[in-house]
Amino acid sequence: MVLVRPRDSTLKHTGSAPTDGGRTLKWSSRVAVRSALAVAFLAASCSAPREDPVGAFVREKMQPGSAGFFIPSPVHRGEPVEAVLQVTAPTMSPDELQAELERIAGRIGVGASGAIRIASRMTATLVTDRECTITPKDPSDQAINLREGTTWRWTVTPRTRGSTRVTVTLAAPVTINGRETSYRVTTFEKTVTVTVTGSDVASDVLTVAKEYWVILAAVGAGLGALFGWLRRRRKRKRQAGFRS
């Protein structure tokens, strides 16, 4: 009889196939690497600065140019004069543009100029710090023609003697989050001297005198009525004393 010895079931495998522990270790390592990459990407996204929409508009939609402003000075009170703002291509320097505006006006005045960024559509407004009648001669909102230049004009009539500060503001409309707002490009501010003539002074004196005469007449009429009432009252008292 031949005895057959059974194989030992406890023998270890020495092949190259990975054990369950090895598979688990590799899977954990991949998850850790992917998580680290996701965290790094998120941190980079959060730390990256967001682009300013106004800065992007200025860089992408606007181009270099020149702007000049001119208004006659001195002027007489009540005299209408024309204030002018113009933008052109940078082929004309700001100083040249200002000199050209003064030449066209044909009289001395005050002005300002500077290099600016120009959009395809711009707006301009003019205000004063003292009483003036301001009448626009061109639309405030205009499409810009750099080749020929774009001009805004106002008729300004000062009503007060002395120094009047004139401020003109040039702006470009920009859309942020679906809403249009105004981006201020530049502001020019100049002081105009307003004078008066001898006839103006005489007219002012007469006007003041008329106003004072009206006041004095009203006061005189009031005092006369008061004195008359007091006199009648005293007379009634005397008559009542005689009767008693």
Please, could you describe this protein's structure?
The protein has 244 residues and is of the alpha+beta class. It has a domain at 55-198: Immunoglobulins (Immunoglobulin-like), CATH 2.60.40.10. It has helices at residues 20-47, 53-61, 94-105, 198-243, and strands at 63-72, 75-76, 81-88, 109-118, 121-128, 132-136, 141-143, 150-158, 162-176, 179-195. The strands form two sheets. It has a five-stranded antiparallel sheet. Strands 2-10-9-5-7 form a five-stranded mixed sheet. A hairpin with a 2-residue loop joins strand 9 (162-176) and strand 10 (179-195). It is elongated. Residues 9-17 have low confidence and may be disordered.
Give a quick rundown of the structure.
The protein has 244 residues and is of the alpha+beta class.
The CATH class of the domain at 55-198 turns out to be Mainly Beta
Succession of helices and strands: HHEEEHEEEEEEEH
What low-confidence regions span 5 or more consecutive residues with pLDDT below 50? 9-17
The value of Rg in angstroms is 43 Å
CATH architecture of the domain at 55-198: Sandwich
In what range is the share of β-strand residues? Answer: 35-45%
Q: Report the biggest beta sheet as strand number plus sense, adding barrel if it closes.
A: 5 strands, antiparallel
Mean pLDDT reading: 81
| Structural class by secondary-structure content | alpha+beta
Helix content: 25-40%
Strand order of the largest sheet: 4-1-3-8-6
Task: Report the total helices.
Answer: 4
CATH topology description of the domain at 55-198: Immunoglobulin-like
